[in-house]
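Reviewers asked in the last cycle whether our approach scales beyond single polypeptides. To address this, we selected a multi-component target totalling 544 residues and predicted its structure end to end. The input consisted of the following lines:
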Amino acid sequence: MTIQDHIKESQEPGEYAELLKQLRTLPEQEPSPGFHVHTLKRVKTAERFSFRRPWLSLAAGLAVLLSAGAFILSSHTAPSADIQWLLTQQEADGTWNPSRHGGNEQFRPALTALSVLALNRSSPRSSKSIHKAMTALGRLQTEDGGFVGGDPQARAYNLAMTTFALATCPTARLQAKPIIQRAVEAITASQLANGSWDYASTPEGNVALTSWMVRALKSAEASGVETTTVAQRKGLRWLMRMTAHTDGNVSYKPATAPSETVTALTAISFISAGQAFPDIQSCAKQMTEQLSQQNQSEGQRDCYRDYAKIVALELAGKRDQALRIRNEMKNLLNVPDTWRVAGGDLYTTTFTALCM
Amino acid sequence: MALDDIEIPVPADPDAALMLRVRDGDEGAFSELVTAYQKKVLNFFLRLGVQYDVEDLAQQTFLRLYRYRDRYQPRAKVSTFLFLLARQVWIDELRKRTRRKKLADSLALETAGDVVPSAADEVASRDVADVQKALAQLPEAMRLVVELGVYQELPYSEIAEILEIPEGTVKSRMFNALSQLRTILKRE
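The resulting structure, written as structure tokens, was:
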């Protein structure tokens, strides 16, 4: 039986035939010109990489661990002073609250997740704290997979940082898998048509946020959470476009001043992406060359910038330059940090702990 | 006797030979199948309410077709096999997404774009939007039956195989879906 036979059987065949005609007025869409080629390519890639070369998955996982700083930041047998301090600052509900340390309450999910990442270094003594924080983060997750945060900027930041931190923290990621899965959905849903992500309400794409989102997706993928590679590739392609006409110094937005932090974040995304696109590694190399030539900003403490630079330079094999930045950081520990207003001492302690 | 041993006669399917070649590793045959079904699969997802990532879902369907090529039995039509996979991709997607309502809402809000339409075009595009809105209001199970029966024009026996439900259920679901659509469209 077909729909036509069914309609003929009905009591009002004429009415239903009209309805069918009306339903079929819906126009059909043609696939995009590259659909056929891309489909065949995707099938070939999936066959080649997913099934026959399991060692490549392992290599990708190692790259993500490297990008998370897992190898850069060696484990401590006893908690350092900053980790000790973090342990004492955990709230009764399991979170870390930046507003109690001079920062903004809106970034509580991100700061909780980053604290977890920092605490992971002193495992197993921190495992209870991490477990408590995971439960708290589950409660802070909203229905759409994002995390609480007042304005869209805070929500986007919380989403990127929390997903990244949870997916790269070995102690956390098993317990956090459902949280990460939902967060990945939110990341994919918030991607703009051009492949980027942005904080603004009139979005055009923000290079730093896009780098973090790509990094979060990559980490989630390596942690065993199902992700779509399309979102990652679209994000990377947009980042490639943004860096195409630069000398290796990248800015937050087109026509704005270059930033070392953004250059480092983009380089990390590119290095972790392997050979996702031709020339992506030569772009990364150019960026890390620029970073290694730049001197530290005079007397200004910026642990976020330093963290990004250390990770990028370590990934590029420039260990001496990374060590130089670490040493300079130690000399500036008593200087107020650029980002203190957002995350307070909690933020600076967490990032400093991740750098040392 | 195992179920696999039972031969069920089905009408000759010209694509079955192609699929058998795919099973034997013929990439050219797979390319032909993608060409033949890409538009159908794409519109399958579009009419289910997907607005973005639609090509990704269509690609995932073809990826599964290739991955499960060894499981294809020529007793089933290729279209049945393909839409069964598309349905599985859709179910997985729904599980992953918490934005079903958002999709339906955005579908309803879709406009004709920047071009100022003629009066006739305006009427036509309004009709299209009405149909889209009406489809979006159907429960998921009914929408799938309408998609496969009305748009893909598959026989009920095939729809039953794809949705893994009895043929009688396909018939009753279709009847209920058409009744609801009629009511909604009359109201618009």
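Chain B has two domains: 10-97, 118-188. We regard this as preliminary and will revisit it once experimental data from Aim 1 are available.
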